[in-house]
Amino acid sequence: METVPSLERFRRRDWLKTEPEGSVRFALVGLGSFTREWIIPALERSTYNEATCLVSGDAEKADRIAEEHGVGSAVTYEGFLDGTADDSYDAVYIATPNALHLPYAEHAAANGKHVLCEKPMEATADRAREMVETCEAAGVTLMVAYRLQFNPTVRWVRSLLREGTLGMPVHVRGAMSQDIFEAISPDPNQWRLDPELSGGAALADLGLYPLNTSRFLLDADPTEVTAQVSNRHDAFEGVDESIAFTVSYDDGTVGAYTASQRSDVTSHLHVTGTAGTVRLEPTFFGEVEATLQTDEGTLTVEPGEENEMIEEFDYFASRVLTDVDVAPDGRHGLEDMRTIERLYRDAGLDLG
């Protein structure tokens, strides 16, 4: 396809405009499996970052993991908030249960530290807004960890839409599902099923991926939303086991999505325009394959060797080190939080 933009410039970090000097020292707050298995190895392989402080509710766990990875400082959550480790880091990565993100962001901002916060930003839009306003007032960088936005194939697909390869976008379809009891934990009392800690289950944890990736690809924001929730398992009382939702975007595109915490794995996003279709499948669980169909033919891009977490952290560090604004910033994440709350209200789900 002669008219299709090359993928190679995206695999060469199209976002890197100025080579930064130095590195960003990170405190990792929350040592769950994702941090242990994905984030720490990513930082060890990254170009502009290093983990210098580990923070956990379990002091023994923090000490053990710090020793395994040669990290110089390990403190408890209380020790972090008391300022015990303030001199050991430049930025904080927050991966605690959702409703606990805000206090660690506030402490970091109050001490001039930058913030990379996992999604969703918090359990409520009001608390997410507090985080944004706190970081803005302190003059520190706040970025939300939407790792798909740094996947080269996803960035390439966004360029297809921007350059009109698909014509005018018309509709998007997406889905992300898993069995939480197999993929995460068999415990029916895990925090992801506690509405006060999680702020929701299927939508807040999974449906957010196709929603935000659609916003990124379209460069558009939601205007109207509808949603329906289905709960069958007793463990999901107060949260959403499965959800189907629609979104109308401000560019005229419409989206239809599903997410479930109690199903077989699904992972796809399809964008159809007036002149073609692109299918991202798989999409959300660490690998992305894209298939483009237009009048010129079909082109398939298989998953590359890029690591979304390395790209995400190096992007963040490059912006901090060169004093350049980040995207996705806190206000971008806040828009998702507000949309999630609108969807839950439409579905009749009261999360308090």
Verbal overview:
This protein has twelve helices and 14 strands. By secondary structure, the protein is α/β, with parallel strands linked by helices. It folds into two domains: 130 residues, Rossmann fold (3-Layer(aba) Sandwich), CATH 3.40.50.720; 179 residues, 2-Layer Sandwich (Dihydrodipicolinate Reductase, domain 2), CATH 3.30.360. The strands form two sheets. Strands 8-9-10-7-11-12-13-14 form an eight-stranded mixed beta sheet. A hairpin with a 2-residue loop joins strand 13 and strand 14. Helix 6 packs antiparallel against helix 12 and helix 7 packs across helix 10. The chain is globular and about 60 Å long. The model has no long low-confidence stretch (mean pLDDT 96).
Strand content: 25-35%
| Biggest sheet strand line-up | 8-9-10-7-11-12-13-14
Helicity range of the residues?
25-40%
CATH architecture of the largest domain: 2-Layer Sandwich
SSE layout:
Blueprint: H1 8-11, E1 24-29, H2 33-45, E2 49-56, H3 59-69, E3 73-76, H4 77-81, E4 91-94, H5 101-110, E5 114-117, H6 125-138, E6 142-144, H7 152-162, E7 169-179, H8 180-183, H9 195-198, H10 202-218, E8 222-230, E9 242-249, E10 254-260, E11 262-273, E12 276-280, E13 290-294, E14 297-301, H11 308-322, H12 330-347
Parallel strand pairs: 1-2, 1-4, 2-3, 4-5, 5-6, 7-10
Antiparallel strand pairs: 7-11, 8-9, 9-10, 11-12, 12-13, 13-14
Helix pairs in contact: 5-6, 6-12, 7-10
